[in-house]
Structures are given as C-alpha cells and as structure tokens.
Amino acid sequence: MKANQVRQVADDVFYVRGTNVNWYLLRDGAELTLVDAGYPGDAASVEASVRLIGHRPEDVRAILVTHAHVDHLGAVGRFHSRYGTPVYCDPIEVGHARRDYLEQVPVRTVVASAWRPGVLPWAVRAARSGGTSDVRVPQAQPFPTNSALDLPGHPVPVPTHGHTSGHTAFQLPSVGAVLTGDALVTGHPTSRRSGPQRLPAMFDHDRQRSWTALDQLAELAGDLVLPGHGQPWPGSISDAVGVARTAEEPRQHTG
Ligand SMILES: [Zn+2]
C-alpha cells in the first residue's frame, strides 16, 4: 500500500485504489465505516489504508459491501477474525455473501472472452490477487434499516439490483456523493473507454436489470461519483448516468 493509493475525496471520505478495484473509508471522529474490501490479495492493503489515514483497524465499526463478488470481499474475513468487525449488505445479497449460490462470471466465460482487449491481462492479475478463491462470508447480515445507517458517514443504502441480485449503492447526503459500486463504474481494464459506464456485459448477473438500476442512481442528488472500479468522477450522478447511457445507445438501438 503506497500513500498515493489513498486520497481524501470529500470531507471525511477516503478513496483507496487496490488491485483494479476500489474501497472507501468514511470517517466520523475516531470511527470508520469501510465500504467494500478489495480482492483477497488486497486484505493487508485494506488494513494498511486504515492505518495510513491515522486509524487502527479496531476503529472500523462495520464493513458495508455493495455486492458479494470476490473483489469486494477480500478483507472481510481478516477483519472479522482479528477485530470482530460486522459486515452488512442488502438482505437479498446475504445469501450470495454466504455462498448459498454464486452470481459471479464463471472462469470459462472469462476464458472464452480472453481474445477481447484487456481481458487476459486483467484475468491473470485477478487470479494472482485471489480472484478464483472461494470467499464466503457466513457472518454477513442484512442492513439493520433501509434508511440512513447509524454508522460513520451515515450512508443510505440505494438498492441497485442487477449487477448482482442484491447490489446496493450508497448515498452520502452530507457530502453530496454516491458510492455506486459496480452498478456504474468509470473504467475497468477490460473496457477501452474511461468515464461513466456499465461494466462489460459478462460481469453483470442480470444485464437488463443493471440497465434499470441506472434509473435509481439518476434520481439521487450528488455531485461526486465514487465507483467500485475506475477513478472518482467529479460531476452529478444524473450526468454520469447520462454519459453511461449515451455510450451504449448505438448498441441498444441496433439490437
Ligand atoms: Zn467489482
């Protein structure tokens, strides 16, 4: 973990860049909320990022996960076993986090797509970071409420189902930011574009619903987009959705 991988992007909001994936730290005095947790290979870096902003891992009151893909759960087990940190997600995502079922792109699909630009190097790096390991979170719990959570940053869960069945974004009304998870990203090694976009289709469990999920995001107030992959985007969330949709329009209309 290098210092330049951690950046304060709003009051008490820290963006951390891991292995092709982001996580965020929300601060309230001495306490933190961790949103998403990197790849298994990022687990030590997640802890290092907490220390880098001057905190101890014990200060993390809870981990929120946008969805239960392996690149967002990496440090959850470490924090649970070492510090007893609870982990929360959408009620629909709990079964996925517990691995009662799996909604992640199968390795065979990645292999079949290896000819596409960026896919092979991304897959190699993902595998090296623990991307094919069996990560399950038996202690995952549903959010205690579906309004503002009583946690540092007071994040408000925004159901944005589609990328996975229980994918959730988080609105941070006090700073005018939206953590969009993988419902809306701003870049990915397997995409040739940068800027607001959906992930390539193979990563979405339900491609149609992930399109509809953009409606939920577009309605939110916020002028800072904090995605699960890619750089933070300084613009309104509704504009970001507009950019993502426009980029796909030719394909949408010729289908
Ligand atoms: Zn992801």
Overview of this structure, please?
There is one protein chain. The chain is of the alpha/beta class and 255 residues long. It is built from eight helices and eleven strands. It has helices at 43-52, 70-73, 76-83, 94-97, 107-112, 119-128, 207-218, 237-254, and strands at 6-10, 13-17, 22-28, 31-35, 60-64, 87-89, 141-142, 156-159, 168-172, 177-181, 224-227. The longest helix is centred in the C-terminal third of the chain and has 18 residues, at 237-254. The chain is globular. The chain binds zinc ion. Zinc ion is lined by residues 21, 69, 71-72, 182, 228-229. Pfam families: Lactamase_B.
In brief, what are we looking at here?
It contains eight helices and eleven strands. By secondary structure, it is of the alpha/beta class.
Brief descriptors of the model:
single chain; 255 residues; alpha/beta; Metallo-beta-lactamase, Chain A; seven-stranded mixed beta sheet; four-stranded mixed beta sheet; 8 helices; globular; binds zinc ion; RibonucZ/Hydroxyglut_hydro; NDM-1-like; Metallo-B-lactamas; MBL fold metallo-hydrolase
Mean pLDDT: 94
Element string (H = helix, E = strand): EEEEHEHHEHHHEEEEHEH
Query: What is the SS-derived class?
Result: alpha/beta
Fourth CATH level, the homologous superfamily: Ribonuclease Z/Hydroxyacylglutathione hydrolase-like
Beta-strand proportion? 15-25%
Can you count the beta strands? Answer: 11
The major β-sheet equals: 7 strands, mixed
CATH class: Alpha Beta
Q: How many domains in all?
A: 1
Low-confidence stretches: none
Helix content: 25-40%
Strand order of the largest sheet: 1-2-3-4-5-6-7
Output the number of helix runs.
8
CATH topology: Metallo-beta-lactamase, Chain A
Organism: Jatrophihabitans lederbergiae
Protein name: MBL fold metallo-hydrolase
InterPro entries: Metallo-B-lactamas (IPR001279), NDM-1-like (IPR050855), RibonucZ/Hydroxyglut_hydro (IPR036866)
Domain Metallo-beta-lactamase: 20-229
